[in-house]
Inverse folding.
């Protein structure tokens, strides 16, 4: 350990452990896409990255209530960190795509994972994760919308890139659940694009 590390009370091994824990998301694929057989399914890290970027892009557009953009970005990057240990457990959507576990058991597994990974060195990340899970702030509620919206954006991209894939269940599971006006506008556009694709497919078949 260098003198600078000692002076600043930095534990390199602990810091490296944090990096490894975060890096687990790069190797954790999104379960829903795998079970729908899409080619090259995204990782949880890719989903979280775009959620953070969407927060940066869209949160400033929300007029009421005014949102803390930095807080929204942090939530976007943190909200799925537990999945690095427990995997992407699915408890919503069509029955054939869900895992055989209750939402309560999923929440308990994820809470334990967050405590194991971050409670000692970065308890603030656990608090941010809990804020999102419990939906206790305007920022957390907005990011819940962006979580659904990012999934629909990804579904839109997969259907455009892989014309044989029908990801209608992702649209059905989120229909009417997005509340923010900003997110609703984009949601409506994505659903228009979906209807146009479906009509085109019917004409071609």
């Amino acid at each position: 350990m260098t003198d600078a590390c000692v002076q600043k009370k930095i534990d390199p091994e602990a810091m490296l452990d944090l990096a490894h824990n975060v890096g687990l998301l790069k190797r954790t694929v999104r379960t829903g896409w795998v079970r729908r057989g899409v080619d090259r399914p995204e990782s949880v890290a890719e989903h979280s990255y775009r959620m953070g970027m969407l927060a940066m892009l869209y949160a400033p557009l929300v007029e009421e209530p005014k949102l803390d953009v930095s807080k929204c970005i942090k939530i976007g990057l943190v909200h799925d960190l537990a999945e690095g240990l427990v995997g992407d457990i699915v408890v919503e959507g069509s029955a054939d795509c869900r895992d055989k576990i209750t939402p309560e058991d999923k929440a308990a597994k994820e809470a334990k994972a967050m405590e194991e990974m971050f409670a000692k060195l970065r308890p603030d990340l656990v608090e941010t994760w809990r804020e999102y899970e419990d939906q206790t702030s305007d920022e957390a509620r907005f990011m819940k919308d962006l979580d659904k919206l990012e999934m629909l954006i990804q579904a839109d991209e997969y259907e455009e890139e892989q014309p044989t894939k029908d990801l209608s269940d992702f649209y059905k599971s989120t229909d009417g659940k997005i509340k923010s006006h900003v997110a609703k506008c984009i949601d409506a556009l994505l659903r228009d694009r979906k209807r146009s694709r479906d009509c085109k497919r019917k004409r071609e078949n």
Remarks:
- The chain has a mean pLDDT of 93.
- The chain has eleven helices and no strands.
- Residues 138-161 form the longest helix (24 residues).
- Residues 95 and 169 are 10 Å apart (CA to CA).
